[in-house]
């Protein structure tokens, strides 16, 4: 056995060096090189292992059965949608998100629903005491006899809890708070995170028990610690939301057992967090009388079609440089649409202040919202409202053409289901045709 010395490792790419530098020599990132420890003792050389034990020998792929690794529902429909149908036995799931977004609340609810079926669930927290977790469970109605709580920061003790409880699901909140006495350095360091994650993943694979790891995020929103952590796990989920809104979204960045383009919708309430199975009414205004400057579109969040209302306001500018204010849409894309409207349609906007926003705080980044933004601006200029049953989606080119977008059939189907009988899309080849179809053909 030989003792190894510590060094410095880049938290982004894993590049190693014997001395500290301000900039990583591999990925060229500044301030990511951190001092890490190494394992206290390692073997001097690797020897050939003994013969595989019974049940672990190599077998033909056609002889393997997949019934034991089917998805098992968690009881939360939106979470199951994102995971591809539920959790897979032996899967390692990394759950990340901003502080206070509701990660612990959602996972405690999932643990309670799993325990309600009679299965044992172990919830390990290195950030809260068991009393604090019970208080939150009482508030959210998550008290179950089969739900076991532990407040630990030592990896060996956590592994002992798993051995003693023999749970069907393990939740660790969070992986950055655990530490192993076999590795130098404090909890949360790259070496500690690698060791903790590797040990928990090994237990998950050996016992066939799914393990959910909560991960902290950095200022730029990425998972804290080495990027190796994201490669080790099977699923990477990101829980996001605006502090000014109760709406929360769950997305998958990596999924070995299902799609990565699904999205789950949740709403934060005083009694916890609840799933929103049909979010169609969250991003539409509730005005009964028609109002000018509004137009509905259908956005695609993963494979889910969501109706979103775009609002525009045009007012005479009191300054030489008119203002262009946006909320929820790409400002550069809005500027391009305004230029196309002025050049191709003849709309007078060079001396007007233009404000464009979405309802409900949703962010539209896809070009399919171009046509709805253009019609909303034209409606605001003419001060004539669009019909309530009109929805528009399509990409606008610099030539004033309307181009088709991805998922056009699904968008049309969702709009029709919600009562939008008048659809304007790429079938109106130019902005002039779309303008006439919307009833805005007269000059301002």
UniProtKB/TrEMBL annotation:
<dbReference type="InterPro" id="IPR027417">
    <property type="entry name" value="P-loop_NTPase"/>
</dbReference>
<protein>
    <recommendedName>
        <fullName>DNA repair protein RadA</fullName>
    </recommendedName>
</protein>
<dbReference type="InterPro" id="IPR020568">
    <property type="entry name" value="Ribosomal_Su5_D2-typ_SF"/>
</dbReference>
<dbReference type="InterPro" id="IPR004504">
    <property type="entry name" value="DNA_repair_RadA"/>
</dbReference>
<dbReference type="Pfam" id="PF13541">
    <property type="entry name" value="ChlI"/>
</dbReference>
<keyword id="KW-0862">Zinc</keyword>
<dbReference type="Pfam" id="PF13481">
    <property type="entry name" value="AAA_25"/>
</dbReference>
<keyword id="KW-0067">ATP-binding</keyword>
<feature type="domain" description="RecA family profile 1">
    <location>
        <begin position="68"/>
        <end position="217"/>
    </location>
</feature>
<keyword id="KW-0234">DNA repair</keyword>
<keyword id="KW-0479">Metal-binding</keyword>
<dbReference type="Pfam" id="PF18073">
    <property type="entry name" value="Zn_ribbon_LapB"/>
</dbReference>
<comment type="similarity">
    <text>Belongs to the RecA family. RadA subfamily.</text>
</comment>
<feature type="short sequence motif" description="RadA KNRFG motif">
    <location>
        <begin position="254"/>
        <end position="258"/>
    </location>
</feature>
<keyword id="KW-0227">DNA damage</keyword>
<keyword id="KW-0863">Zinc-finger</keyword>
<dbReference type="InterPro" id="IPR041166">
    <property type="entry name" value="Rubredoxin_2"/>
</dbReference>
<feature type="binding site">
    <location>
        <begin position="97"/>
        <end position="104"/>
    </location>
    <ligand>
        <name>ATP</name>
    </ligand>
</feature>
<dbReference type="InterPro" id="IPR020588">
    <property type="entry name" value="RecA_ATP-bd"/>
</dbReference>
<keyword id="KW-0238">DNA-binding</keyword>
<feature type="region of interest" description="Lon-protease-like">
    <location>
        <begin position="353"/>
        <end position="444"/>
    </location>
</feature>
<keyword id="KW-0346">Stress response</keyword>
<comment type="function">
    <text>Plays a role in repairing double-strand DNA breaks, probably involving stabilizing or processing branched DNA or blocked replication forks.</text>
</comment>
<keyword id="KW-0378">Hydrolase</keyword>
<comment type="function">
    <text>DNA-dependent ATPase involved in processing of recombination intermediates, plays a role in repairing DNA breaks. Stimulates the branch migration of RecA-mediated strand transfer reactions, allowing the 3' invading strand to extend heteroduplex DNA faster. Binds ssDNA in the presence of ADP but not other nucleotides, has ATPase activity that is stimulated by ssDNA and various branched DNA structures, but inhibited by SSB. Does not have RecA's homology-searching function.</text>
</comment>
<dbReference type="InterPro" id="IPR003593">
    <property type="entry name" value="AAA+_ATPase"/>
</dbReference>
<dbReference type="InterPro" id="IPR014721">
    <property type="entry name" value="Ribsml_uS5_D2-typ_fold_subgr"/>
</dbReference>
<keyword id="KW-0547">Nucleotide-binding</keyword>
């Amino acid at each position: 056995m030989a003792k190894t010395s510590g060094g410095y490792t880049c938290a982004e790419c894993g590049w190693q060096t014997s001395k500290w530098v301000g900039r990583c020599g591999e990925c060229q990132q500044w301030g990511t090189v951190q001092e890490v420890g190494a394992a206290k003792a390692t073997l001097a050389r690797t020897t050939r292992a003994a013969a595989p034990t019974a049940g672990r020998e190599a077998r033909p792929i056609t002889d393997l059965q997949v019934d034991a690794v089917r998805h098992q529902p968690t009881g939360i429909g939106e979470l199951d949608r994102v995971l591809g149908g539920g959790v897979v036995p032996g899967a390692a799931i990394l759950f990340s998100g901003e502080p206070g977004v509701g990660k612990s609340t959602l996972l405690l609810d999932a643990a309670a629903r799993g325990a309600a079926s009679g299965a044992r669930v172990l919830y390990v927290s290195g950030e809260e005491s068991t009393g604090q977790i019970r208080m939150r469970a009482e508030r959210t109605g998550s008290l179950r006899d089969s739900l076991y709580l532990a407040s630990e920061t030592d990896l060996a003790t956590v592994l002992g809890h798993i051995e003693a409880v023999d749970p069907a699901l393990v939740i660790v909140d969070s992986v950055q708070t655990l530490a192993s006495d076999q590795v130098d350095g404090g909890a949360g360091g790259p070496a500690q995170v690698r060791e903790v994650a590797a040990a928990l993943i090994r237990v998950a694979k050996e016992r066939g028990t799914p393990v959910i790891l909560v991960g902290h995020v950095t200022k730029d929103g990425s998972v804290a610690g080495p990027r190796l952590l994201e490669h080790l796990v099977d699923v990477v989920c990101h829980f996001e939301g605006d502090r000014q809104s109760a709406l929360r979204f769950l997305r998958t960045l990596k999924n070995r057992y299902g799609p990565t383009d699904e999205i789950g919708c949740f709403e934060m309430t005083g009694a916890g967090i609840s799933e929103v199975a049909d979010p169609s009414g969250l991003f539409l205004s509730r005005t009964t009388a028609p109002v000018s400057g509004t137009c509905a579109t259908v956005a695609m969040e993963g494979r889910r079609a969501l109706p979103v209302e775009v609002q525009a306001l045009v007012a005479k500018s009191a300054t030489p440089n008119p203002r262009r204010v946006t909320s929820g849409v790409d400002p550069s894309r809005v500027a391009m649409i305004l230029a196309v409207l002025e050049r191709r349609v003849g709309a007078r906007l060079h001396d007007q202040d233009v404000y464009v926003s979405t309802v409900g705080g949703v962010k539209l980044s896809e070009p399919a919202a171009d046509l709805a933004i253009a019609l909303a601006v034209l409606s605001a200029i003419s001060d004539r409202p669009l019909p309530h049953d009109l929805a528009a989606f399509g990409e606008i080119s610099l030539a004033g053409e309307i181009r088709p977008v991805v998922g056009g059939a699904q968008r049309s189907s969702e709009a029709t289901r919600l009562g939008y009988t008048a659809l304007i899309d790429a079938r109106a080849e130019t902005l002039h045709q779309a303008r006439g179809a919307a009833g805005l053909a007269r000059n301002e």
